[in-house]
Design goal:
6-stranded mixed beta sheet, 18% helix, 1 helix, alpha+beta
Length: 80
């Protein structure tokens, strides 16, 4: 089954997306939240929006950069 990413928030070179199995965004059917780079590499996976947003905010505030070796690109379709 293919995951579909629905952008929620973009900040400081990071993108917070909600993952669903369906093409249509439905807040009741979100399976996870993922923080990604703008190029689509997944960095962090959380079950709640609050936890994912908090992790992303810490990265932006700390000015941390992501090593391309640690960030792996995974197949995800972006839908808007």
């Amino acid at each position: 089954m293919t995951e579909h990413a629905h952008p929620i928030l973009t900040k400081g070179g990071y993108q917070l997306v909600a993952l669903t199995h369906g093409h249509t965004y439905d807040p009741e059917r979100i399976i996870a939240y993922v923080v990604m780079t703008m190029s689509g590499a997944r960095l962090h996976h959380e079950r709640t929006l609050e936890d994912a947003r908090s992790w992303m905010e810490k990265q932006v505030e700390g000015g941390e950069s992501v090593s391309p070796l640690k960030a792996r690109r995974r197949r995800t379709r972006l839908t808007r």
